Amino acid sequence: MSRTAWAPLALVALMLSACGGGGGGGDAAPTPAPGAPAPTPAPVPAFAPIPASDGEAARFLVQATFGPTRADIDRLRQIGYSAWIDEQLDPGRTPVTLVTPHILSIPVAQLNYAERRNYWLWQATTKPDQLRMRMAFALSEIFVVSDRDYNTANFGRISNYQDMLAQNAFGSYRQLVERVTLHPAMGLYLSHISNRKSTSYTNGQGVRVTIVPDENYARELMQLFSIGLIERNPDFSPKLDAQGRTIPTYDQETVKGMARVLTGWTWPGNTRETFWRWGADNEARPMSCVPEFHDEQPKTIFNGVVINEGSNCVASLAKMLDALSAHPNVAPFISRQLIQRFVTSNPSPQYIGRVSKVWTDTGGDLGRVIKAVLLDVEARIPPAADNAGYGKAREPLLQLTALWRAFDARYIPRADGQYYFGFSNAWDFATTLAQDSLRSPSVFNFFEPDYRLQGANGVAGPYAPELQLYNEATFVSVFNQLDSAGWSQLQTAPPTANTSAPVLDIRPLLALAEQDNHGAMVDQVNTLLLAGALTADNRATMVLMLDRLKTERRPADERVRSLVQLAVASPEFVIQR
Q: Does the keyword Secreted apply (predicted)?
């Protein structure tokens, strides 16, 4: 049988499984009608503080890391969920991994976007600060910048933005949103760097010209980074007016007011005379403000808040961000997205409400919030088998790192220090994996939190953000890219400096294959790749495949590779539950 001949059928089966059956979307968790009173919460069941099995531990690690490893499963089963998270939150015990120093060490003439991506991806695969790097990755999909318009002389700046998200991943939302706002990478991407107050002049042809503040960042700061488009209750349900209509969070006049607040900010160190001067290559210090270019008149923003700090642009920004961070929409709006990134695409209103309460009680402490996300009962107690609305598709990048981590991947950079991945079409994962690090086609990310599958008769099905990446072509290309990163790289020999991809350690599975212990092989893969989710029927199918390969006198290493390939194509791998 060809290694890829059955891939399209496997992926079609995956799509049907994700949708809850053929012909349409599965039933999502019931959602209250807009404006309906919230139901009385049911008693929250308890769960054991320490996972009772390797599968339970692996399921948690699928949510909280870039993929389970044998060592992490053992550690988690030793100390329990809460202590494991506390270790990850403590930079003294789990230091922050930074990407920028390596990127700046590579000569510009040798640097390309893939080097930045490969180095980050390998740190995400191997470094111990797994929860922090996962959180930073999730934040990068909310506070989006992209390197698509960058040149090599500026990759250090966008790497610094990535590091900034990691350094602030467990701090306060208020601090994070300020650092996002003032980072030159964001200032360039959403064009509020060198934004100036409104001015008019007569040009050489006698035409009166008026320049108004750029509104790009002002709009996206509200729509995507904080409060969304409509007023929300703490459980994310929409607030309604007396006529039963949703209530907008802002209008065009609000956008204009916000844009005026954001005037005067430019490259760090610039003055009135050098306001328009372009920053140095890789300049990543926070933007600085030139008061002469800041709109000193009163500015009305959302909820009637007035910013009237004169030409003091630092005070104006602080007052605006204070008001933004205190807006009641921020807690449910961001909490829901974090739940979607880590646990499930369709969290119940009660789940969102519980996490939102932690947000509100702690003033937006992101470390406390992500702990609440991961330790909520809806995260820790597995769903019923017929609950098709629960879970999420693993992002393609997370599928790749999970494969590498499951088999203790090893890699040696080239002699010049670069991380070169030459397997298949590894140059641009945005094409082959339909996703890449900080390379989104727009500020709306590679996929949107409100993307839904289509249900029967055109009715909107469950939310499934990651499945927005998939179509007939990308289903196959994602599988083939993972296949090329795994099939030829499952080896017994250690890597060399010329290895074109991380080498996956085949030895534990190979030892079982050589003993013809096919059941144990499947059980090991079930834990490390599938978080113990393999159904009895699918387990029997995998064992049968291995038995038949043995009957056909296929060597042990081929049986190992065939098993891993089948596991990576399975719904239990791609759909996280």
A: no
Query: Do 310 and 296 meet the contact criterion of CB atoms below 8 Å apart?
Result: yes
- The values of phi and psi at residue 267, to 5°, are -60, 145
Q: Which residue, among 221, 215, 178, 473, has the nearest Cα to 319 in the 3D structure?
A: 178
**Cα–Cα distance for residue pair 476/64, rounded to 1 Å:** 27
Tell me if residue 453 falls in helix, strand or coil.
strand
User: Model pTM?
Assistant: 0.92
What length does the chain have?
577
SS3 of 388, please?
A: coil
DSSP secondary-structure letter at 230?
Answer: B
218: closest CA among 385, 505, 468, 443?
443
CB 249 within 8 A of CB 291: no
- 3-state DSSP assignment of residue 505: strand
Per-residue pLDDT of the chain (577 residues; tens, 9 = 90+): 333 333 333 333 343 344 333 333 333 344 444 444 445 555 667 889 999 999 999 999 999 999 999 999 999 999 999 999 999 999 999 999 999 999 999 999 899 889 999 999 999 999 999 999 999 999 999 999 999 988 888 899 999 999 999 999 999 999 999 999 999 999 999 999 999 999 988 888 888 888 999 999 999 999 999 999 999 999 999 999 999 999 999 999 999 999 999 999 999 999 999 999 999 999 999 999 999 999 999 999 999 999 999 999 999 999 999 999 999 999 999 999 999 999 999 999 999 999 999 999 999 999 999 999 999 999 999 999 889 889 999 999 999 999 999 999 999 999 999 999 988 888 889 999 999 999 999 999 999 999 999 888 888 999 999 999 998 899 899 988 988 887 678 888 889 888 888 999 999 999 999 999 999 999 999 999 999 999 999 999 999 999 999 999 999 999 999 999 999 999 999 999 9
117 contacts 431 by C-beta, under 8 angstroms: no
In angstroms, the CA 533 to CA 402 distance is 15
Residue carrying the six token digits 């470390």: 367
CA distances from 162 to 136, 377, 385 (A): 7, 31, 38
Instruction: Kindly give, in sequence order, each residue whose CB lies less than 8 Å from that of residue 454, ignoring residues fewer than 6 positions away.
Output: 24, 25, 460, 461
